[in-house]
Write a structure and sequence with these properties.
289 residues; alpha+beta; Ribosomal Protein S5, domain 2; Alpha-Beta Plaits; 2 domains; eight-stranded mixed beta sheet; four-stranded antiparallel beta sheet; 38% helix; 30% strand; globular
Length: 289
Amino acid sequence: MSESSSAFCPGHVTAFFEICDQDDDPLRKGSRGAGISLSLGATSRVTLGNADASGISVKINGKGEKADTTKSALESILGGENTPLSVETTLDLPMEQGFGMSAAGTLSASLALCSLLGLPSEKAYQASHVSEVSHRTGLGDVAGIKAGAVEIRLEPGLPPYGKAERIGATGEMVLSIVGAPIKTPDVLTDPKKRAVISSAGRRCTSEFDAQRDLETLFALGVEFVEEVELSSKRVLEAMIVADSHGMATMAMLGNSLFCIGDTEELVESLERFGPVYRCTIDQRGPRIL
């Protein structure tokens, strides 16, 4: 007999960040920085005791995937038991475009499993964060999603070590994809890129801490983009177009933008660059459905 549970987890965009992954304890690893939780994200349905499943099987948008980050988190929650488990995850946004889909997929599945097992949600957050940093698929998304809305991550990792503070802000957002996906591990393992990112991210986080509003977040995001030089010419072109209708900066790490302003004008002006999505700043956070 099988049991199922479903959970939703918001996506997340990061404007700027400092890499903080030197500690041996994965719960202390992560990033300092700032970002926004998105009303679009990932929904996962987890089924326990599925007779057709051997070990953990994961489907994303209907297709079987390796999903190593998700599987590692679920294995951690199960405590090494070889429990038949199937996961069906639906992503509202594409992977590897800076929208936190790896974290959202992993965390939604982990929360659903913890619900089935009667475990506290904190177990899901910890397992997801540890798996994210271990597989280098993300550093601060889980901490940012946990804080919700707009957040500043002042200390890396999760509580009691990490410190992320929620900043009250609402509004519609436009997400624009303008190029090919960026593989996060490729950036996080490049020594030169790491040094530049961390230096710029440290400065931007300090300045945002002194003036915590959306205007400052976007302005510092643009400065970060210019300093770290990870953006393509097409991303910079799209940012200039979007600036005519509001505020825009690059989502870290993706060939994509997130924007706030005149939604209709932003959508119309950015559609020529690629797929465009509308959403809002998420206020509710991850939740069991």
